[in-house]
Amino acid sequence: MSNPSSAGTLTLPVTGMTCANCAATIERSLRRLDGVGEASVTLATERASVTFDPARVNAQTLVDRVRRAGYDVALGDLDLAVSRMADDNDARRLEAALREQPGVVSVAVSYAAERAHVRYLPTEISPMDLRRAVESQGFEAVERAGGVEDAEAAARARETNRQRRLLVVGLAFTLPLFVLSMAADFGILPMAVVHAPAFGWIQWALATPVQFLVGAQYYTGSYKALRNRTANMDVLIAMGSSAAYFYSLAVLLGVAEGHLYFETAAVIITLIVLGKFLEARARGQTSDAIRHLLRLRPDIAHVVRDGVETDIPVNDVRVADVFIVRPGEKIPADGRILEGGSSVDESMLTGESMPVAKGPGVEVIGGTLNQLGRLKVQAERVGGDTTLAQIIRLVEQAQASKAPIQRLADRVSAVFVPIVIGIAALTFLAWFLAAPTPASGNTVLAEALIHAVAVLVIACPCAMGLATPTAVMVGTGRAAELGILFKSGEALETAGRTTTVVLDKTGTITRGRPEVTDVVVAGGPEEEEALLRLVAGAESGSEHPLAQAALAAARTRGIRIPEPSTVEAVPGRGIVAEVEGKAILVGTSEFLEERGVQIGVLARPVADLQKRARTAVVVAIDGDPAGVLGIADAVKDGSAAAVADLTGMGLRVMMISGDNPATAESIGAEVGIAAADVLGGVLPGGKADAVRSLQDKGETVAMAGDGINDAPALAQADVGLAVGTGTDVAVSTAPITIIGGELRGVARAVQLSRRTLRTIRQNLFWALFYNVVLIPAAAFGLLTPMLAAAAMAFSSVFVVSNSLRLRRARTV
């Protein structure tokens, strides 16, 4: 028995669903299974997320349950050549170990053939993970020739190809049938031909393959749905086309009177197949973002082992491996640079177009592009632990989740088909019992039947079922391309309803580390480098943040940092040192005055820096005042533009900081936040209280932060945004993550959320409007069944196509 996961949760890639009722059927079937706690099925992503008791339910049980409901699960098949098995006991031990892996459905290991065959859920485990499981048991595993296909993509491709083949067959028979029927209706054919018995049998011969070959999937789907005591779109199509076909057959056999409607039955089925084929192709594009992310990782890594560079599959890279990345190549795994320097294009993950300079000791992300130099990197995170793999998982989770706005569509879809069948029955009775004799010469029975068929065929539960999830899929995918990760559909929806954005200061608006912002030299600007060289030399052995800021400023300018001859640190005050034969004092103005140095001409610059919320570090050389460094947590590039973007969108922007109010107000003014909307000196718990106070006033609050002390406020806000370079606590607390750490990502997230919400509302409006208007129109005889079939077939295509427009959404 497999033990899927300690959390008791599995995601199943389901195939064969056609409408929201299919998803509801699978949900009900899974929930009835003893040991299943919760099941959620999404039509657009074709995923079933199941929470269960591993002691009573395993992966095979869940797969069997889905199949019993009349659907299928896309499984991966992996063939491994296994060596180092000593006897059959080893084979049984390996089989038991693989069966315990999450997502493994079945295992067969043969000692004689030295082979292992594994069937698995591709949503839960990868071939790489399975190979590592084999190796962990002391065996060697090599993937057998032919490789392993992407099970989900392959299953959907097979289904699309099947619909294409059925469409070709349907068109081959339906087009001549339709031409013959129209020629008869418009008097193009001689009446003798039209009334000849053979003419009707020719129509029957053309319609029958369409009805029972092309349309077999709808009969099968209807049977499975009814067997599970539910009704779906297949039931409507089967009922509508069968009514037209069998009534025509009865007329042909002389059992009933009226016209033949073989062409109506065939056109209904062929148009529905055409719509489903186009819908399948369009829905495939909703996952383009995931496929794009998957393509970012290279296939090969140049790993250095035992001093020799060897090309190996990227799946075989392990933690602590050292690999080489040449200019123009993608980085195969997350790691830290050991040697070399380069510019790395991270736009595919962060959405930011500017390359990032990288050097020894700096982290690099797998999937990003090395542009210039040769890098030697040590792997720190590989396989499913890489940043790219985590991003893919987050996007998949978001695409599989349901947004709250979808609840209305779910409630309607649950009762939609039975209601439509009831309306069709009432339509038939009304036309049969109360309508006048048809002027067309048709029988009352035929007229009533045709109008009832139109009602059955025009109804489309699929459009409502696809309205929300397709927009969520495309919206979250587009967000990922821009470096924004929505963890759920609910987060995507809530962000669009935000009225107030609260920003943390340190690490969100500012860089989160002290930097030299001003250099004032008593002797003039030409002596700046000399001053920085001596200060950096004096501070070179200090770990104090202000000392590190001075050192960073010198290194940035390419200044050689000299070694001090002597250093004496005075805690909280400053440093006394001798550098290049000169006596150096670095510290507060009070510290220098205590040492007998009058700062004189530097008094005004010191006061000005303090007024602008800078820390003033005064420097004296050989007893004379030499200059002052202004050090502050500098504002990030783009922070002011981000605040302008947010206010331009009609949002109120506030800043909350633990720094003193004067510093906070100074930073707020620098980025364009009014003093009234700046709160300084706020403790971590107070940030959450401030957010709660805004919510009590009816505001929908988005909180953006990156530090551990932001976690309570991120959790309290209606939606939290972790600015990507933040701590793990902040990232895990917030339902939205801005990967690149740039504040403009917050504005992009809100903007994209608003557009997605607008698209969802458009989809729901047209899906509901379509059914509310056209079902009565069909009931009152204003639509023929063929027009109804065409409208029904393209309603879902319209919804999906409207959602796909989000792929081109532009943001600030």
Give the % helix.
Answer: 40-55%
Structural class: alpha+beta
Q: Helical element count? A: 29
> How many DSSP E strands?
30
Strands across the major sheet, in which order? 18-30-29-28-19-26-27
Beta-strand residue percentage: 15-25%
What is the chains' assembly state?
Answer: single chain
- General form: elongated
Q: What's the alpha carbon Rg, rounded to whole Å?
A: 35 Å
Unreliable stretches, pLDDT < 50, 5 or more residues?
1-6, 145-149, 726-730
Provide mean pLDDT, rounded: 84
In this structure, how is the largest beta sheet organized?
7 strands, mixed
Give the terminus-to-terminus CA distance: 52 Å
Helix-strand layout with pairing:
Blueprint: E1 9-15, H1 20-31, E2 36-42, E3 47-52, H2 59-68, E4 72-73, E5 76-83, H3 88-99, E6 104-110, E7 115-120, H4 127-136, E8 140-143, H5 151-185, H6 191-194, H7 197-214, H8 216-227, H9 233-252, H10 262-285, H11 288-294, E9 300-305, E10 308-313, E11 322-325, E12 334-339, E13 342-345, H12 347-350, E14 356-358, E15 363-364, E16 369-370, E17 375-381, H13 387-400, H14 407-433, H15 444-458, H16 461-481, E18 484-486, H17 489-496, E19 500-504, H18 505-509, E20 510-521, H19 528-539, H20 545-556, E21 566-570, E22 574-579, E23 582-587, H21 589-594, H22 603-611, E24 615-621, E25 624-635, H23 639-648, E26 652-656, H24 661-671, E27 678-679, H25 684-696, E28 701-705, H26 711-716, E29 719-723, H27 728-733, E30 736-738, H28 744-779, H29 785-804
Parallel strand pairs: 19-26, 19-28, 26-27, 28-29, 29-30
Antiparallel strand pairs: 1-3, 1-4, 2-3, 5-7, 5-8, 6-7, 9-10, 9-11, 11-17, 12-15, 12-17, 13-14, 13-16, 18-30, 20-25, 21-22, 22-23, 23-24, 24-25
